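Consider the tokenized backbone below.
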């Protein structure tokens, strides 16, 4: 069973937000001292509640830092994945609500 990473209460100060700038959120990771089996398990980062217009191109990238240092920045980031919405028309519902699930190791 993978470890599910979820945002803590501090994310309420950030979201909901319009993604017109860089957004940073601290997501607590499993404890550092884990068994070998626990370390080999995949961690899942879930981004829920993504709301987009169907007929608008939307793309954002997700980066993660392994460092827990407060000064950890882009130079220590690793690409985790992207969310992309390709515009398309529907006769109903112009907005969609979806989620993004990324596996990290």
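A designed sequence for it:
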């Amino acid at each position: 069973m993978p470890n599910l990473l979820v945002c803590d209460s501090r994310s309420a100060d950030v979201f909901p937000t319009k993604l017109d700038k860089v957004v940073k959120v601290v997501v607590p990771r499993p404890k550092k001292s884990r068994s070998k089996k626990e370390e080999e398990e995949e961690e899942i980062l879930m981004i829920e509640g993504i709301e987009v217009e169907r007929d608008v191109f939307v793309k954002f990238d997700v980066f993660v830092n392994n460092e827990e240092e407060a000064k950890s920045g882009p130079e220590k980031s690793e690409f985790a994945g992207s969310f992309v919405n390709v515009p398309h028309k529907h006769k109903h519902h112009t907005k969609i609500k979806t989620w993004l699930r990324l596996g990290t190791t």
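The chain has one helix and five strands.
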